[in-house]
Predict the 3D structure of the following.
Amino acid sequence: MKIENEKWKVNGIELNVAQYGPKDGPPVILLHGFPENSKAIIEAFKDLAEKSLHIIAPDQRGYGVSDKPKEIKNYSLEILTKDMEELIQNMGLKDVTLVGHDWGGMVAWFLTNRRPDLVKKLIVINSPHYEIFKRNFLMNPVQLLKSSYIFLFLIPKLPEIVLNWDNFAVFKFFLHRSAHPKTDQLQEAWKQEGAITSMLNWYRAMIYNLRLPSRNIQVPTLLVWGEDDVFLQKEMALQSLHYCNDGKVKFIKNAGHWVHHQRIEEIIGEL
């Protein structure tokens, strides 16, 4: 069995979509975060195929070999979520288990909020509900400090220079500092034309996410949280449960933001 890649047209763009496992099995959509891609997250979850599950991992817009619109407004959470909504519909998927990490978790939260009819179960990995993140980012000085790198990303052009320098040396250094175990495997995707700018545009479009509609998540929800996350306070996981009708948190000790690479066995066990 090998990973298959297909191009799918959604929401006016074309996405690269990786698939693994039996296509007649229950579908599991994996949404990667910054600065990963479909290959990184599908490699982490490949063992799900042994349970006869159909694993689907798109390069979200701006990433990998998917399209990379230039305007910042094209990376608002509403547009990113519309991509995944149309992908599920165009692929004819039913009873989807949706798994999202980091920014992919934000998309998963909002998609499940907006279209609970498309999602059977929600699993979010080290990504708070978008309302909880907004509240802590704006009002919690500890989280503001943890998220201070975002202010660098908002500066035009400078972060591209820094992150591209010396074959992504600075980029890889900071990921190593956060205990990412597979940094070298990501740089081929970063080399795609316009990739670094497009990835940063997810952050630059945050201003469009300030007034998103929100209601309680109606499907069963599991938050998996590596306790040693250097970017996000674990208290936000518990706070996120206030937006879930049927939610629980699984904290994983001795793991951080990249828990899906560090302790994948425990996550698959929870799934």
